[in-house]
Amino acid sequence: AQSVTQLGSHVSVSEGALVLLRCNYSSSVPPYLFWYVQYPNQGLQLLLKYTTGATLVKGINGFEAEFKKSETSFHLTKPSAHMSDAAEYFCAVSRAGSQGNLIFGKGTKLSVKP
Amino acid sequence: GAVVSQHPSWVICKSGTSVKIECRSLDFQATTMFWYRQFPKQSLMLMATSNEGSKATYEQGVEKDKFLINHASLTLSTLTVTSAHPEDSSFYICSARDSSGGGQFFGPGTRLTVL
């Protein structure tokens, strides 16, 4: 079975500060890992994903995440937060190479202070 | 990029009525679509997997007779909430998997409020 744990339901940073959203996964098979962002009353937008290959993945809006198998982690980072980054962020896992569904973490709400 | 639409974006209905939500892949074909439910301040919970031309696969605890899913074409899946009750009020989000292997894309969601 697969699962995702997002540490911290709410993270608050100042504008310009580093953003770090934590995600740990559990999977008995090679995972595909995803980060999605959700703005209020909207669907999910894919930020980035890891499937195979390079473990440091760059996504949209300046976000990146690093797949660390030894730590079973896929933390999301951004060097400098912008006010527009305030949203809910979800980490998700699926079975590698399959057409299986995504298993989501509980989400982390990011607030950005001016 | 690939676009998935949902209609309606929000709906208010009386208890006991049925509500149909449409999920369309606009510029790609999707043999598989997923229906999720999201309660306020919570994560997405998979309700069912919809496969074109066959019966949907429901997750444990989801009543298939209450949440009817029809995937009649490669670009359209519908979710009908039958005899809706206030506890069915939620945000329903669909996603569609590009049959050509281009990934999975989410719709904007439908907010259902049952009075």
Describe what is shown at a glance:
The complex is a heterodimer of chains A (114) and B (115). By secondary structure, chain A is an all-beta fold.
Largest interface: A-B, 17 and 22 residues
Q: Portion of residues in helices of chain A?
A: under 10%
Shape of chain A: globular
- The secondary structure category of chain B is mainly beta
Low-confidence stretches of chain B: none
The fraction of residues in strands of chain A falls at over 45%
H-E string of chain A: EEEEEEEEEEEE
Radius of gyration of chain B: 13 Å
The total strand number of chain A stands at 12
Individual helix count of chain A: 0
Helix content of chain B: under 10%
Distance between the termini of chain A: 41 Å
Question: Which structural class do you get from the secondary structure elements of chain A?
Answer: mainly beta
Query: What's the gyration radius of chain A in Å?
Result: 13 Å
What is the chain-wise order of helices and strands of chain B?
EEEEEEEEEEE
Q: Mean pLDDT of chain B, nearest integer?
A: 91
Q: Would you report the number of β strands of chain B?
A: 11
- Report the sheet with the most strands of chain A, covering strand number, pairing sense and barrel closure: 6 strands, mixed
Q: Uncertain runs of chain A with pLDDT below 50, 5 residues or more? A: none
Tags for this model:
heterodimer; A: 114 residues; mainly beta; six-stranded mixed beta sheet; four-stranded antiparallel beta sheet; B: mainly beta; seven-stranded mixed beta sheet
Describe what this molecule looks like in 3D.
Chain A has strands at about 5, 10-15, 20, 25, 30-40, 45-50, 55-60, 65-70, 75-80, 85-95, 105, 110-114. The mean pLDDT of chain A is about 90. Chain A is globular and about 40 Å long. Chain A is built from no helices and 12 strands. The termini of chain A are far apart. Chain A is mainly beta and about 110 residues long. In chain A, strands 2, 5, 6, 10, 11 and 12 form a 6-stranded mixed sheet that branches. Chain B is an all-beta fold and about 120 residues long. Chain B has no helices and 11 strands. Chain B has strands spanning about 5, 10-15, 20-25, 30-40, 45-50, 55-60, 65-75, 75-80, 90-95, 105, 110-115. In chain B, the strands form 2 sheets. In chain B, strands 2, 4, 5, 6, 9, 10 and 11 form a 7-stranded mixed sheet that branches. Chain B has a 4-stranded antiparallel sheet with strand order 1-3-8-7, with no helix packed on it. In chain B, a hairpin with a 6-residue loop joins strand 9 (about 90-95) and strand 10.
